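Amino Acid Chain and Its Fold in Token Form
===========================================
Scope: a single protein chain, as residues and as a discrete description of its fold.
Amino acid sequence: labelled as such and written in the usual single-letter residue code.
Position: the record begins directly beneath this header, with no further notes in between.
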Amino acid sequence: MTPPPLANAGAAPTDFFAVLRERDVLVHHPYDSFSTSVETFIAQAAADPDVLAIKQTLYRTSGDSPVVASLIAAAESGKQVAAVVELKARFDEQANILWARALEEAGVHVVYGLVGLKTHSKAALVVRRESDGIRRYCHLGTGNYNSRTARQYEDLGLLSGDPDLGADVGALFNFLTGYSRYARYQKLVVAPVALRARILELVEAEAAAGPEGRIAVKVNGLTDPAVIDALYRASAAGVPIDLVVRGVCCLRPGVPGLSETIQVRSIVGRFLEHSRIYRFGGTGGRPLTLLLGSSDLMERNLDRRIEVLFPVTDAELQARVLEVLDLNLADDTNAWVLDAQGAWRRVEAVTGTSAQHRLQELARERARRRREPEPLAAPVL
């Protein structure tokens, strides 16, 4: 389903740039359509005569991808197009080489990553000429620009016209394409330069708050010793910590005197849980920090990859992300929990809550509310 802010009940297509000038849009795949959100964003940019440039990272992208077709069309129409292609995406190396050549032949500036670092970040930047000057629009996400996996992998993304975020994404692409060295970012948190340090800083801030603190993280893997030790210290300080880890987890929860306040669970359902969510604070009147992005808490992500975390600051969108976290923590249909001995056991069903089923229902409800006409006001007698 198309996210309501991007949907148009009339015959004319939605002007994504007009929407993003007014507000950020959160997309949650596969519950929200990848085709009518992210792919349409790139397609509109490619066809728009006022768009001057499009820049995008491509990690796992199929050769018949509409995104690749849009980038080729944009380059052929005279736009400046750059694609940062990661050839070392495991199992996809040959496919990536083939469509990267097609991009080069169309005039796209193709960059094959940085020496010693795998480009794993998920980012797209559109530079557009408008009546009041040049404006940047961007998409940042937790998943790949791949229409096939977007129907099977659960991922979150943000479409935004925020000037500060756009400036950061522009600086990121200048670095990735060799036009600048490492930059200072206003909103992005980028590995391998600053991501581990920022996560440790946020964990330590919650540890200082003790039982009034709050940490909840959803990732694919947790193996980094420094992060694990910081979480243990936060637990010793009494901070409630919930971790949703789909794959390998080297932290042991529920160990007396070490990790008594930590719970670890995993959701194994119809869709592969792939989004990364980082929640710190937001309890007892304390400020909430909410980050999404491409990075897991593993040494390879923090030390040997270009990864990006980005903030969600709009209150309505924060509520949507927290709803995803809360449903993952309430799931007793597809959930498994890790015990102090390192063994997984299935959660006993009590309420019959399925996070994935409920998120499907919520997406349908949002779409239905958009289609239904507003109720008429009662006449004044």
Remarks:
- Residues 260 and 303 are 29 Å apart (CA to CA).
- Residues 4-187 form a domain with the Endonuclease; Chain A fold (CATH 3.30.870.10).
- The first strand starts at residue 25 and ends at 29.
